[in-house]
Amino acid sequence: MLRAPHSCLIFVLTTCLNVLVFLPATAQSVVSERALRRVVGELAGDAMRGRSVGDGSVLAARYLEKQFQRAGLQPLPGAASFAQEFTVYQSRSQELTVSLNGQPIDHSHSVLLPGQPSFSWTATQARPPRLLVVPAGVPLRPYVDSVFKAQQDLLVLVHPDHSRWFNSLVAHYWSNSQYSLTPPDPFSVVLLLTTDTKATSFSVSGRTSVRPVQLRNVVGVLPGRDPAHRNEQVIFSAHYDHLGIRPAVQGDSIANGADDDASGTAAVVALARYYHKRHDNARTLVFVAFTAEEVGGFGAEYFSRQLQPRQVAAMLNIEMIGTPAKFGLRSAFVTGFEKSDLGAILQRNVPATAFRFEPDPYPDQYLFYRSDNYKLAQLGIPAHTISTVQLPSATYYHTVDDEIANLNFSNMRAVVQAIAAGAASLVSGQSTPTRLAPGTP
Ligand SMILES: [Zn+2]
């Protein structure tokens, strides 16, 4: 008699365990607000100093490597760890001294695009720089192209008619570093704001600092379980870097980047845990936390160079999903929605009454081109960004006020669950989105 309740209990327990083991994990059961809040809290904590490249991003990468490990991911085939390391070159305009036609030019009327470590030019040297004059009242576009596609030393005289453009260059190049995957080209470009249209005499000397910086993407994989589909990949990504330390506002100088893009990165970690628990992905799933998005998408660019584009069925990049979208709760938009049928596939797998994937409501902001998806889209991959940001009214965007307190975690959980459910037929190999035109889709 006494044994009966005991054996009954064992029976009940094993039945429960069996149910737990054999029921497939659902997005509802795996993706929790608490887990999302924990990852965003770590990444957007002051200890990570705003995750700028070469500073707090190192700590953030180490944290994400641990998260990928815990989620049950594996490193890329042939890689020893989740870190995908590469070098960028950080260059910064340091000094420029100019006199033109006998007159010294004020610092605020001159700008140097970083190039050679040091140079000096005169009008009488053997191979003087090429001269480009931007007169008043002309459309700027072709001149902008000539400046940024220069392949030799270039001295540009810009008429004050174009001072708005010129001042934006001054503000940018004298206070920001530039980054590139290869060392800067061995020539320099100098622009002067002046009414002069001739450079009969000039002397120009300048200095640029260049230093290599080691960066890392964090990349983990769940190998495909179906031999017919395991060579096909679906990529889930977000960028973990942000802007670092900014001019202080009310004593706060850390741009924590809770929405941009700790929210997307937390989603990638949650999706990794979800698909690992499901154990049924036919295609190979690649989870990436990119670095260096904010300084030009170099993490995604490096990553894209290691890929076989034809093997990538889709890329779902996730950016700024921490606040409700323009369309209300339980909705998100897909950038470049009309360029492939990826958005339509996501919606097919999720009832529109439960969640809506909408086209990008801000086409004039060119968001499709402004995030890491674009580096892969250029290779023909159906690569889109999923977001909820209300860009025109998001006053915290790119300021020190992008804090965790602004985030709506219950809606964010709904977004991540919708992505998980929406991607089901991509993960199972049942749907393959149409490809983009390679080049500039
Ligand atoms: Zn971002």
Average pLDDT value? 92
Gyration radius from CA atoms, angstroms: 26 Å
What is the name of the CATH architecture of the largest domain? Answer: 3-Layer(aba) Sandwich
Low-confidence stretches: 1-22
Describe, in short, the structure shown.
29% of the residues lie in helices and 25% in strands. It contains twelve helices and 17 strands.
Question: How does this model look, in words?
Answer:
GO terms for molecular function: metalloexopeptidase activity. Residues 217-421 form the Peptidase M28 domain. Pfam families: Peptidase_M28. One of its GO terms (biological process) is proteolysis. Keywords: Hydrolase. The chain is an alpha/beta fold and 441 residues long. It folds into two domains: 27-74 and 223-427, 3-Layer(aba) Sandwich (Aminopeptidase), CATH 3.40.630.10; 92-211, no CATH class. The chain is 29% helix and 25% strand. It has twelve helices and 17 strands. It has helices at 3-22, 27-30, 33-43, 57-71, 141-148, 163-173, 258-278, 298-305, 342-348, 373-377, 409-422, 424-427; strands at 83-100, 103-104, 110-113, 118-122, 130-134, 154-158, 178-180, 189-193, 202-222, 233-239, 244-249, 252-255, 284-290, 312-318, 331-334, 356-359, 383-387. Strands 1, 2, 4, 7, 9, 10, 13, 14, 15, 16 and 17 form an eleven-stranded mixed β-sheet that branches. A four-stranded mixed β-sheet has the order 3-8-6-5, with helices on one face. Strands 11-12 form a two-stranded antiparallel ribbon. Strand 11 (244-249) and strand 12 form a beta hairpin. Helix 3 (33-43) packs across helix 7. The longest helix is centred in the middle third of the chain and has 21 residues, at 258-278. The chain is elongated. The N and C termini lie far apart (75 Å). Bound molecules: zinc ion (ZN). Residues 239, 260-261, 293, 319 line the site of zinc ion (ZN).
